[in-house]
Design brief:
Trna Endonuclease, Chain: A, domain 1; alpha/beta; 30% helix; 5-stranded mixed sheet; globular
Length: 127
Amino acid sequence: MNPSLEHQTLVRALINHFVQKLGFTIIAADFPGYTIPPKYNRHSPDIVAKDQFGILHFGEAKVSDQIFSEDSKEQFVDFSNRVMVSNGRAITLHIVVYKTGEEILMNTLREMGLNYKVNSRIKIWTL
């Protein structure tokens, strides 16, 4: 499936935020110039990054009409429950949406029972 321009804009924004603001290293990204991320169980994240301590972070970009899809819900569950095999440390899931999709995302996470992970295992970013 060819990602939409809106989706690619979100992926690029999260890559830039990871590198410029957080100092992360991008391991893989579903974006031109990067290696495509591997699948982790059922899905492949849009971005796999590593922080200064060697901890992995997953990035997912979602346009509003994707947020409540079954695929997205599976990704939210799978990626927010991952731990690193090497040391058992939690992998943080970063979800980037347009500002107009933030409320949809929060409602979806609440309905799924994942809202308690927001600001710990799940970080939400808006554009």
